[in-house]
Amino acid sequence: MITASTDTVQPAIDLASLALCKSDNPADPVESPPVNTTDGAGLGTIDGAAVSGPMLPPAAMQSAPAEAAAGSAVTGDNTNPTDSVMENADAAPITPADSVMNDDVAAGKSEGDVPAPPTRPPPIPPRADPKPAIKPAVQSISRIGRIEESARQQDAAEVMSNIFDLISCAITGDSILREGEQGDAIKNLFFGDVTTVMEKSDGVQKVQELRDHFLVATGQRDRSLYATLDEDFGLGEIADGGGMRYDYVEKAAPIQIINVKRLQFKEGKPVYDHSHIGLEKTMYMDRYLARTPTLSEAQLLELRKAQWAKQKELRELDAKRTKLQTTGIEGLNLPECLEATSDFVNSLATEKSEHEQPSSSQDFLPTPPPELSDTLHTRAADLAADLSGIDDQITLLESKIDTVFEDCNSVPYRLHAVFTHRGDVRSGHYWIYIYDFHKDEWRVYNDENVDQVEQESVVLDKEEAHRPKVSTGVVYIRADLVDDYTEAVCRQPEKTEEDTQKDIEMKDVTFDDDPDDEMPALEPVDLKDVPVIDGVEKE
Q1: How far apart are CA 359 and CA 354, in angstroms?
Q2: Does the CA dihedral 471-472-478-482 come out positive or negative?
Q3: What is the rounded distance in angstroms from the CA atom of residue 435 to the CA atom of residue 475?
Q4: Is residue 106 part of a domain?
Q5: In terms of domains, do 186 and 228 share one?
Q6: Residue 201 in 3-state DSSP?
Q7: What is the DSSP pairing of strand 214-216 with strand 255-260?
Q8: How far apart are CA 311 and CA 305, in angstroms?
Q9: Element (H or E) spanning 430, and its range?
Q10: Which pTM does this prediction carry?
Q11: Is 20 exposed, middle or buried (0-12, 13-18, 19+ CB in 10 A)?
């Protein structure tokens, strides 16, 4: 058990920045380049603050013209006044402000009119501090705002992947993987080796990759976790239509993360999927592995083929169901649209019979046959029954798929954590449930607070609400490793010395050999003065 002296969990801003962003400076805005106070540019600083004011003209403007007058102190090919060739080496240096300008010569001034060199040097401008005082960095609100903005663009899966990358960069590897990647503790714990089999006309091709999570979708309906994984690992068509493909796990990760894709897109618009996923406290990975302690690769392949046949029926039913649910009217499926049309036709026929002279708005409408409304109503009822029956058939087929692997239970994984979200595509709130295998209890970690969950149904059961909480990711630990690889955090605040009662030493009462001696009479004690010792719950 990991204990801590505080009753809340609140990471520092730097740690949060690293977890949520690719660096500790997330999306810095473009700023003007700072004034370099260490070189000759600018007017320097005073007490660490940059000095602003009129600047000297550029070097090109400070130089003399190409054709200087005869006897001028500046040569014609000079471009930098500090590098000028002087006629008299003993003369005082001439500053740019005292240089002879062409306009004076053009005005008819003679050499004798040239003003004398200045008798004192120009004032020295402020210079940069040789060692400016280092001021402590103050965490600005703008940086916190940038971190929040970066966090809004990521989900829990992206944050977790970023943390894995940062930790891998910070630790020493212990091996080299097949693609030249670093093998380390992160790869050994969280990454599984997944093989993709592509059956094409020119042969079978296998591709292997490391995955730190499985990504599943609910299909816009309540499903079990097995059903979502079966679809992800099932037989499907290759994108270009060049064959079939399926996946299996060559080597499973000891800690398996499964993320749920909640954000879907319909007609180019984001839609949040609030469907419930039924979680298993113990999940068996056998059906997704290349081989198990009890089944060979060929035996598992035969079971998968039986599963694929039922999954094909499942896809056909799902396509039919989607067709019945899709109409051009938002919020209405096909049976509901027909029912609404039947009501409209019926009302139209009623108005025709009640009014001898039809209204101007209905002059162009023909008189509907009396049996049309009844026909539409009957058809709507039939399609509604078909739609309801399809849902029942889909649920039955998914249960039959589970029975294919009912004897495959040699590789168990235990549920350890559930990432939870309540909200929609625009906003929401995350928290996490973590199961303590040592204490046999769930805890909820919500922002800064950590509390015990009284009923397990709060974590596993579907919430009946307008915007119910949903699981966005789950973490499973291989059953034989839960004691070695998990240790939940339990907050136990430390008490100050004033709040802590010291132990009272208990001594036995002794009597002299004289039998007449008696225990001394006890003085009356006021109960208000008796200290109270807080009890400690036994582990």
Answers
A1: 11
A2: negative
A3: 10
A4: no
A5: yes
A6: coil
A7: parallel
A8: 10
A9: strand 428-436
A10: 0.61
A11: buried
* pLDDT, tens digit (0-9, with 9 covering 90-100), for 174-183: 999 988 889 9
Residue labelled with tokens 């540019």: 41
Rounded Cα–Cα distance for residues 386 and 399 (Å)? 20
**CB of 60 within 8 A of CB of 79?**
yes
The span from the CA of 199 to the CA of 192, in Å, is: 23
Q: How far apart are CA 146 and CA 29, in angstroms?
A: 9
The two tokens of residue 146 are: 């940038």
Are the CB atoms for 243 and 255 separated by under 8 Å? no
User: Distance between CA atoms of 518 and 413, rounded to whole angstroms?
Assistant: 69
**Tokens for 381?**
């009822």
Cβ neighbours of 110 (radius 10 Å): 10
**Contact criterion met (CB below 8 Å) for 246 and 233:** yes
- Residue 243 CA neighbour count, 13 Å, CB half: 12
Query: Counting Cβ atoms within 10 Å, is residue 138 exposed (0-12), middle (13-18) or buried (19+)?
Result: exposed
DSSP secondary structure letters along 487-512: --EEE-PPPPTTTSPPPPPP------
Give the angle subtended at the CA of 293 by the CAs of 289 and 298, to the nearest 5°.
55
Q: pLDDT per residue over 255-300, tens digit each?
A: 999 999 998 887 778 889 999 999 999 999 999 999 999 999 999 9
The whole-chain average pLDDT of the chain stands at 74
pLDDT by residue (tens digit) across 35-94?
Answer: 444 444 455 655 555 555 555 555 545 444 444 444 444 444 444 444 443 444 444 444
Mark which of 459, 483, 507 sits at the end of a domain.
Answer: 483
262 and 389 in a single domain? The answer is: no
Give the residue among 258, 256, 280 at the shortest CA–CA distance from 157.
258
Nearest residue to 193 (alpha-carbon basis) of 323, 293, 296, 289: 289
Radius of gyration of the chain (CA): 41
Residue ranges of the alpha helices (H) in 40-125? 59-62, 102-106
Same domain, 309 and 321: yes
Domain count, the chain: 2
